[in-house]
């Protein structure tokens, strides 16, 4: 508002300033034209070098540019951004209108001061009033734009915090899934290792038990075989002893039967009459 008032109050200074800038720009343009006309033609090698330098600079600039952030889809942020864009357009339009009104105010002021007529003074007064109104509306628009920008920054901050929270939750979920999968794999690996170790220990213990049982059973079988062999030997001895007693008994019966026969023979001979040979 202060800048606008100064421009309205001192239109002569503004006009003189514009004239000075125009003169300086004219001098610069004439100097540039003279310099361009007096400059020597650039050789091809230097042009090629400058082109390569410009391309290298452009590549470095493009490489130095940061990557664009992801597109925001939050409705609050989009609404605040659209409001800021519309207010920026309004502010740009107001600034253009203010520059035009400043020129009009300066023109009417100079005209009224030169002519000193009532119509020119009224026109100058109306131009200044319209300029004041326009500056007030521009001021309100700028304040609205600042408020909208503040709301946009707040909504962006909230969106960034929310997106950070969501990304953290997603990362935690991914980490949980990864750790659970790794735990399942480690559990399966440990189970297989424990199973192999347990089977090895169990087979060793079972082999020891089987070895002890086989030793015990072999001892029992050996004892049973020994016992059965001794029993068979005793039976064989008994059988052999029985056969000898039978032979002895048969011999005894044979010897006992022979004297009986002799006794009967003697008895028979004793009962017979003596023969003549014996009598003579």
Features:
0% strand, mainly alpha, 280 residues, rod-shaped, single chain, disordered N terminus
What structural class do helix, strand and pairing data support? mainly alpha
Note the gap between the termini: 212 Å
Q: Tell me the number of strands.
A: 0
Largest sheet: none
Biased composition (Basic and acidic residues): 119-134, 162-175
Biased composition (Basic residues): 216-225, 269-280
Biased composition (Low complexity): 21-41, 48-69
Region (Disordered): 1-77, 95-175, 216-280
Structure description:
The protein has 280 residues and is mostly helical. The chain is built from 6 helices and no strands. Helix 2 (11-38) crosses helix 4 (75-115) and helix 4 runs antiparallel to helix 5. Residues 1-49 and 58-68 have low confidence and may be disordered.
Break the fold down into its secondary structure elements and pairings.
Blueprint: H1 2-9, H2 11-38, H3 44-64, H4 75-115, H5 118-271, H6 276-279
Helix pairs in contact: 2-4, 4-5
Biased composition (Basic residues): 216-225, 269-280
Biased composition (Basic and acidic residues): 119-134, 162-175
Region (Disordered): 1-77, 95-175, 216-280
Short characterization:
The chain is an all-alpha fold and 280 residues long. The chain is built from 6 helices and no strands.
């Amino acid at each position: 508002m202060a800048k606008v008032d100064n421009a309205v109050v001192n239109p002569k200074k503004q006009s003189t300033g514009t004239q000075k800038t125009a003169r300086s720009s004219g001098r610069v343009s004439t100097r540039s034209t003279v310099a361009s006309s007096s400059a020597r033609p650039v050789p091809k090698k230097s042009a090629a070098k400058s082109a390569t330098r410009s391309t290298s600079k452009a590549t470095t600039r493009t490489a130095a540019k940061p990557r664009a952030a992801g597109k925001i889809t939050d409705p609050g942020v989009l609404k605040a951004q659209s409001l800021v864009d519309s207010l920026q357009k309004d502010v740009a339009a107001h600034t253009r209108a203010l520059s035009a009104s400043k020129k009009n105010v300066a023109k009417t002021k100079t005209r009224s001061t030169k002519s000193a007529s009532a119509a020119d003074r009224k026109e100058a007064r109306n131009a200044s009033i319209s300029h004041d109104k326009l500056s007030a509306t521009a001021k309100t628009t700028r304040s609205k734009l600042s408020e909208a920008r503040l709301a946009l920054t707040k909504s962006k901050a909230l969106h960034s915090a929310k997106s950070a929270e969501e990304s953290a939750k997603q990362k935690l979920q991914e980490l949980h899934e990864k750790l659970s999968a790794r735990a399942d794999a480690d559990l399966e690996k440990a189970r297989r290792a424990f199973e192999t170790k347990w089977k090895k220990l169990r087979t060793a213990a079972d082999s020891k038990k089987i070895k002890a049982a086989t030793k015990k059973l072999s001892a029992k079988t050996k004892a049973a075989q020994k016992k059965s062999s001794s029993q068979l030997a005793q039976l064989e001895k008994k059988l052999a002893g029985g056969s000898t007693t039978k032979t002895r008994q048969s011999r005894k019966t044979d010897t006992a039967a022979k004297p009986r026969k002799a006794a009967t023979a003697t008895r028979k001979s004793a009962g017979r009459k003596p023969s003549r040979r014996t009598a003579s």
